[in-house]
Design brief:
Elements: H1 2-22, H2 29-58, H3 63-84, H4 94-112, E1 113-116, E2 119-125, E3 128-130, H5 132-150, H6 163-178, H7 182-198, H8 203-223, H9 225-235, H10 246-258, H11 282-315, H12 319-343, H13 361-379, H14 393-410
Antiparallel strand pairs: 1-2, 2-3
């Protein structure tokens, strides 16, 4: 009887552990706070950067900020929905999501795209402009997470663990380049290499692919007249400061004039000279109006987002969640670094937005969905794995103890 009582108490502890594991983890308040801070700051900066242009061109100083506020409200809704929907239920829809995004990207290339500047990156649905290349980034992360977790035991093989992933990212990259959208192609490639490395792919294959990708990028620049012209302008900005290098030159001046503490919110001068300052070059306005302090705080906030994303990846309940969290963290961090590098004229102009700050709906909604998925993975981090695919160890142990106890009592 004494042994039976001890086993009963042990079973009770096991059941209580299982119940604790099945309860959703508390929301990652640090990640939520950092995201909401970025969204709020983005609305303020969009108004500061766009009010002059909106007044001159449209007669309404609040035209852009009112739209951005609507996008932020929608983004919060998307983030909440993405957090509530169990990420593991996305597995059956992986190929549907990826295929739909690829069809939308193909539509922009083959006659259905809306032109802005010299690119066809948008699909126009009534008053709404959708940018499929933004959605492709999350779709690729979801597909890679699904594929890498499914092929865990064959990830180091060439034909199963390497080639299919290169073919998929290659197809998406070609569609981006045809729009053309060189920046998104770079981001997609970097996400793939990062996840392949995290998943334990063979390093020699990854390094060889990186070398080929760099060589292909150089070749694309040399064979494309407008890309080559941009590179030449970037290499000698003083000579081309009134033509192709006008935007990066003015952007660098904006950072320089901000100094340590900035000129003050709404007191910047580059909003008069920097075209589309509220979109890809909004970081330059932050640098001018809030100075080095503002940029440092902005980078620290983005650092918190990436840090929490990596922490969520390390605590995920399964490989699928780990790869999703790592991929989305890589996506957000890469876009921030590339956007700021362009604004500081460290790299040539790429046409990438600054997550949560740049004006526009597609980028904002995709970034919000990314945060929602990170919160979702975090929400299930302490739950037991799906019993269909991997029975919890605690449940197996408790079940075996119940059988042993019943057998002993029967005896």
């Amino acid at each position: 009887m004494k042994r039976t009582a001890e086993r009963a108490r042990s079973i009770g502890r096991g059941v209580r552990g299982m119940l604790a594991m099945s309860a959703p983890a508390p929301v990652d308040s640090t990640l939520v706070a950092a995201t909401i801070a970025l969204l709020g700051f983005g609305v303020v900066m969009v108004y500061s950067a766009s009010s002059y242009e909106a007044t001159v061109r449209l007669g309404d100083a609040q035209f852009y900020v009112k739209r951005q506020a609507i996008y932020v409200a929608l983004a919060l809704g998307v983030m909440w929905l993405a957090r509530r929907f169990d990420y593991r239920k996305l597995r059956p829809f992986t190929y549907f999501i990826l295929g739909g995004v690829m069809l939308a990207m193909a539509a922009t290339v083959f006659g259905f795209g809306h032109r802005a500047g010299n690119a066809y990156r948008w699909l126009k649905v009534g008053p709404v402009h959708i940018q499929p290349s933004e959605m492709a980034k999350v779709a690729l992360v979801l597909w890679l997470a699904y594929s890498l977790s499914k092929k865990a035991d064959k990830i180091r093989t060439f034909w199963v663990g390497f080639v299919p992933h290169m073919i998929t990212v290659g197809a998406l990259t070609v569609l981006c380049l045809m729009q053309p959208d060189f920046g998104s192609a770079v981001v997609l490639t970097m996400i793939t290499f990062a996840l392949m490395f995290v998943a334990g792919g063979r390093l020699s294959y990854i390094l060889a692919s990186v070398s080929l990708a760099v060589g292909a990028a150089i070749l694309l620049v040399r064979l494309s007249p407008y890309r080559m012209a941009r590179w030449m302008a970037f290499s000698n900005m003083d000579e081309h400061r009134q033509s192709l290098a006008y935007q990066p030159f003015q952007s660098v001046m904006s950072f320089g004039s901000g100094g340590f503490g900035g000129l003050g919110l709404g007191r910047g001068y580059q909003v008069l000279y920097l075209p589309e300052a509220h979109t890809d070059f909004i970081a330059a306005i932050v640098g001018e109006e809030l100075g080095f302090v503002g940029i440092a705080l902005l980078l620290a906030t983005f650092g918190v987002v990436v840090w929490r994303g990596v922490a969520i990846a390390l605590a995920a309940a399964d490989d699928y969640g780990t790869y999703i969290a790592f991929g989305l963290s890589t996506l957000l961090g890469t876009q921030v670094l590339l956007n700021l590098s362009v604004a500081l004229a460290i790299v040539p102009t790429k046409g990438l937005t600054l997550p949560f700050l740049s004006y526009g709906g597609s980028s904002l909604l995709v970034s919000a969905a990314s945060i929602g998925l990170l919160l979702n993975v975090s929400r299930h981090a302490h739950r037991a794995p799906d019993p269909i695919s991997a029975p919890p160890a605690a449940a197996a142990e408790s079940a075996s103890m119940l059988v042993a106890t019943a057998a002993e009592d029967g005896a």
